[in-house]
Design a protein that fits this description.
- The complex is a heterodimer of chains A (about 300) and B (about 475).
- Chain A is about 70% helix and about 0% strand.
- Chain A contains 13 helices and two strands.
- The radius of gyration of chain A is 26 Å and the shape is flat.
- The chains are: A mainly alpha (about 300), B alpha/beta (about 475).
- The interface between A and B is large, with 63 and 68 residues.
Chain lengths: ~300, ~475
């Protein structure tokens, strides 16, 4: 069977004007009608909230009554708010942990799961993925039981093994940050592993065979074959991990509630707190807008650096 | 033969080529339409805000179905009976439609529904920790009915300490369901076994006895919350601060944390944790506290009257009969023998068809002496009318969990010493800031004075936005 490869002859007058009559108009509307559902939803649920947030960020509003226009005062207050500075620093830390700890761990885990002859591979996959599907409430409850200073399991084990164990995992600012980082690692590493595993399975085996023939060992093959082959997936995982970590909310909210004090407060929590615990919707919108601009700008930068979505 | 797939590339119109056909909807027109739609939608909240006030004509009689919101289902059962009393006192016939939500969520949802202009509750119970959110701006004024004119002869009998938290600018937005006095719970059998006196008059004496008991038996005579919930952490401190004569906010809502009383109480708690007289837990209603109570590691606790119902009975039912209550030991340097923590104010949404019916229901539930008696009998919540504290029925009720002790006698002796609490819209900010510094002071990383000074400084910095 042959497939016609020649382009059809141009229709008469098609490039000049639409055919007269209702049929022509319908054809003109057709493509817009097909793409409309997406764009209508996009406008309603993306563009409109952004525009609303922009407007709201210039006001002071408690939720009821008329918003009072305050110009750029919310942004100026944010610049002077030590709490917001703390949240920015914490979110930066979460981003660094996510990109430089969670992503490499997920890759190593995927590599381990991809090993030839590994038994119970599916069991391991499920085990690593389970934290992702667990209810955050369950996670919070379990960690509160594990990490309690006086009566928690972790400290009891440490005490039994080493005689110490008085670590205040949630009450000490530094330990609390570490605790959140560990929970982020525990919760997300299995999820990202799935992406890497899919990418590893798509790497042609003959590349490894060729590398082996050239005398490359396992480590050399990993750096010269595996990493370049899965670069598009890695780039995608890095960017999505960055976006997720910059907007991190669940883990600090559930495990430490942003505390002690504000030691683990993230920017997303700052926005939530301002809007829904302090009724400062204008201030929350301003903080949300700053977060949006930073995430958007860095994501674009990463997209360009990592050449995501560009044909070779 | 293989098909030649055309290669897609960005189309560039050759120079001189005719412009693309302009159909009824060009790309530019589509973008303009989208922008117009977005701008129109962006105006919606503003328009909704302008229409914020609700002004339906209130119904004066007949069948009413009240949307009743609470964070505690026990209130629903209580109000079902109160509705019968309200029916006898008015021309309404009630049906309650219950919605239950977390204390914080309830306020969030009420505000969200008010913004939407419909679906607000008719009657709602606002937990005292969440209520300060309604004190910001015009929220309470826009959302809730002023009940101060509906008190009748109860006005002079209601405890001022329980109307103050729910009042602002002379308006009363909710009636408190409880007068949650703080008492000292202790496990009498264990105190006796370990030779710890149960009648020590001061905290200092109890601390000395507790330190010895910790050294010999590894037990503590109280617990201090140091978990992740800022409000819970500050609650443990606030109870003793109020007892000592200090407070978080003054009558005008201004911060009053930098005081000698606050410094003394914080120092006392830090020292208690250091010596082991006190133990640290995530929260007084949290699993680690349950473990501490069950294992006998913690043998006493200062807490509100409702702690027996929500803290002790469910967590250590096997210790029924072993517990007793007594007035708080006093501080040597001054103060009283009790404090307050908790409470839930029931308010009525203003300007609705069911507003009058809601007011009649809340009045029946919280202003009639018989309902005040029933509330203690059925729910364990203390009366908010002073005269009811002399009720012989209440004074004679034995508390089986406390070994048959007539606990109401203790409450009657303490009620006139109870301190007043004043709330501020910035309470949540204070909780966040203070909680962190409390933990540092408990660890001994900073002094109590430094903790309070830093709290005040951070608080002022963070509330700059709301003060302007």
């Amino acid at each position: 069977m042959t497939v016609p490869t020649t382009t059809p002859p141009p229709r008469a007058a098609s490039s000049e004007s639409p055919p007269p009559g209702g049929g022509g108009r319908r054809r003109m509307w057709a493509p817009y009608a097909f793409i409309a559902p997406f764009y209508v939803l996009y406008v309603l649920f993306m563009i409109v909230p952004i525009l609303v947030a922009c407007g709201l960020s210039l006001t002071e509003w408690v939720g009821l009554g008329t918003p009072k226009f305050v110009g750029l005062r919310n942004f100026l207050d944010l610049a002077r708010d030590t709490s917001f500075h703390t949240a920015l620093a914490n979110s930066t830390l979460y981003v660094l942990v996510s990109v430089f700890v969670v992503v490499p761990c997920a890759l190593l885990l995927a590599q381990a799961l991809h090993t030839k002859g590994l038994r119970a591979r599916d069991l391991f996959r499920v085990t690593f993925f389970v934290p992702m599907v667990l209810s955050p409430i369950v996670i919070a409850l379990v960690y509160s039981l594990l990490l309690d200073t006086q009566y928690g399991l972790v400290n009891s084990v440490l005490k039994a093994l080493f005689g110490g164990g008085g670590v205040d995992w949630i009450g000490d600012p530094d330990w609390a940050k570490s605790t959140v980082a560990v929970v982020v690692l525990w919760r997300w590493v299995g999820y990202l592993t799935i992406f890497f595993l899919a990418a590893l399975q798509a790497v042609p085996k003959d590349l490894y065979e060729a590398a082996e023939l050239d005398g490359a060992g396992a480590i050399r093959s990993f750096f010269t074959v595996t990493l370049p082959s899965i670069q598009p997936v890695t780039a995608f995982v890095v960017v999505t991990s960055f976006i997720g970590a910059a907007q991190l909310f669940d883990e600090p909210y559930l495990i430490t509630n942003g505390g002690p004090g504000e030691a683990t407060l993230s920017v997303a929590m700052f926005v939530y707190r301002a809007a829904f615990q302090r009724q400062q919707f204008g201030y929350a919108a301003a903080a949300g807008l700053v977060l949006f601009v930073v995430v958007f700008a860095v994501s674009q930068l990463l997209n360009r650096l990592l050449a995501i979505g560009r044909a070779e | 033969m293989a098909a030649q797939v055309p290669k897609f590339s960005r189309y560039r119109r050759p120079s001189g080529a005719p412009p693309p056909p302009q159909g009824p909807l060009s790309r530019r027109a589509l973008l303009r339409a989208g922008a117009g739609l977005g701008a129109a939608a962006a105006l919606t909240p503003g328009l909704a805000a302008c229409a914020g006030g609700q002004n339906a004509d209130p119904r004066a009689s007949g069948d009413v179905e009240l949307a009743f919101w609470t964070h505690d289902e026990a209130y629903a059962d209580f109000f079902e009976v109160s509705a019968e009393i309200a029916e006898r006192a008015s021309d309404f016939r009630y049906r309650l439609r219950l919605s239950r939500a977390g204390a914080e969520d309830l306020v969030t949802k009420a505000i969200a529904q008010a913004i939407a202009g419909r679906g607000t509750p008719d009657v709602a119970g606002f937990e005292i920790g969440a209520f300060p959110r309604l004190l910001r701006g015009v929220l309470a004024e826009e959302l809730l009915t002023d009940l101060s004119g509906d008190l009748g002869d109860a006005a002079d009998d209601l405890l001022p300490s329980r109307t103050a938290p729910f009042s602002r600018d002379g308006r009363l937005y909710a009636l408190d369901s409880d007068a949650p006095l703080v008492v000292y719970y202790y496990r009498e059998s264990e105190f006796e076994r370990l030779g710890i006196p149960t009648d020590l008059a001061t905290w200092e004496e109890l601390a000395e006895a507790g330190t010895r008991a910790h050294e010999r038996h590894g037990v503590s005579l109280g617990a201090v919350p140091v978990g992740s919930e800022a409000g819970v952490n500050t609650q443990g401190f606030e109870m003793l601060l109020l007892q000592r004569g200090g407070r978080f906010f003054d009558e005008d809502g201004a911060l009053a944390i930098e005081s000698p009383e606050a410094e003394e109480v914080l120092g006392f708690l830090a020292e208690g944790l250091r010596t082991g007289f006190l133990s640290s837990v995530a929260g007084l209603l949290h699993p680690p506290m349950q473990a501490a109570l069950k294992s006998g590691a913690v043998l006493g606790q200062w807490m509100a009257t409702w702690y027996r119902i929500y803290g002790l009975e469910p967590n250590v039912p096997e210790q029924a009969g072993q517990w007793r209550i007594r007035p708080l030991p006093a501080f040597r340097s001054g103060g009283v023998r009790t404090s307050f923590t908790g409470g839930t104010g029931f308010g009525v949404t203003r300007g609705k068809e069911n507003t009058l019916a809601g007011v009649e229901l809340v009045k029946a539930a919280y202003l009639t002496p018989s309902e005040q008696v029933r509330r203690f009998r059925d729910l364990g919540y203390l009366p908010t009318r002073r005269s009811v504290y002399e009720d012989p029925e209440l004074l004679a009720i034995p508390d089986e969990f406390c070994g048959g002790q007539p606990t109401f006698e203790v409450y009657r002796d303490l009620i006139d010493e109870a301190p007043s609490i004043h709330l501020s819209a910035d309470k949540s900010t204070l909780d966040t800031v203070l909680s962190g510094y409390l933990l540092q002071a408990y660890h001994g990383d900073i002094s109590p004075r430094e903790a309070l000074a830093r709290t005040a400084e951070d608080f002022r910095g963070q509330t700059r936005n709301s003060r302007d």
